[in-house]
TrEMBL record:
Organism: Erythranthe guttata (Yellow monkey flower)
Membrane-spanning segments: 53-71, 83-101, 136-154, 160-177
Signal peptide residue numbers: none
Keywords linked to the UniProt accession: Endoplasmic reticulum, Fatty acid biosynthesis, Fatty acid metabolism, Lipid biosynthesis, Lipid metabolism, Membrane, Metal-binding, Oxidoreductase, Transmembrane, Transmembrane helix, Zinc
Lineage top rank: taxon: Eukaryota
Lineage: Eukaryota, Viridiplantae, Streptophyta, Embryophyta, Tracheophyta
Protein name: Fatty acid hydroxylase domain-containing protein
GO molecular function: fatty acid 2-hydroxylase activity; iron ion binding
Length: 226
């Protein structure tokens, strides 16, 4: 299904075009189009609607779920200090998930039709259209689907009494990640801390795992050696 010499028509829905680029996809997707007007992904209005979200929808939908999960943990007999520790552990676990997704899924090199198509849909669009404000956060519908295996995984590695707090912490970590991701694309930070959040490696909210696995970019390593 890869077409030699294929040219993407930006005036048509993109998702099912990019697969035809084959090996040329990697070069194409890393040539950003800096415009706040995002492209159309799908011909279907329904699927197109699901790809567009304002950033504030993420905390609006998921922070109440976080609060509910933590309240469940308290109702199960956990003390407040225990819930806090479990929540911190959940956030910590999320930072590893975040790093793993960015390193081994979001930044893989693809060249097949479906590989290019899926990569563009889940992450490549952020590289191609970095200022598209309605596609810089993960669609809530997709998040809701992924929460089921995430919840089941947490139940496997924790007890029924502690699982809600760990789940709430992990979900809170995700909210922090998505909001931070949006901020880094659309802000012009003046203070040192937010500046250091940019270009730190595969971690978005933390450079911990980049340090652990030695994947900090050269600019960060040079800064640390001064």
């Amino acid at each position: 299904m890869v077409v030699q010499g294929f040219t993407v028509d930006l005036n048509k829905p993109l998702v099912f075009q990019v697969g035809h680029l084959g090996e040329a996809y990697q070069e194409w997707v890393h040539q950003p189009i800096v415009s706040k007007e995002g492209p159309r992904f799908f011909k279907s209005d329904f699927w197109e609607y699901l790809t567009r979200n304002e950033w504030w929808v993420i905390p609006l939908i998921w922070l109440p779920v976080v609060c509910w999960s933590l309240s469940r943990a308290v109702s199960f007999g956990n003390t407040i200090p225990e819930v806090v520790l479990l929540t911190v552990f959940g956030i910590f676990a999320w930072t590893l998930v975040e790093y793993t997704l960015h390193r081994f899924l979001f930044h893989i090199e693809t060249k097949s039709y479906w590989g290019n198509t899926m990569h563009y849909l889940i992450h490549g669009c952020h590289h191609k259209h970095p200022m598209d404000g309605q596609r810089l956060v993960f669609p809530p519908a997709a998040t809701a689907v992924l929460l089921f295996p995430f919840w089941n995984l947490i139940k496997l590695i924790s007890t029924p009494m502690t699982a809600p707090a760990v789940f709430g912490g992990g979900l809170l970590g995700y909210v922090m990640y998505d909001v931070t991701h949006y901020y880094l694309h659309h802000s012009q930070p003046t203070s040192e801390f937010p500046k250091n959040l940019k270009d730190k490696g595969f971690g978005i909210t933390s450079s911990l795992w980049d340090k652990v696995f030695g994947t900090l970019p050269p600019s960060k390593l040079a800064g640390k050696s001064r």
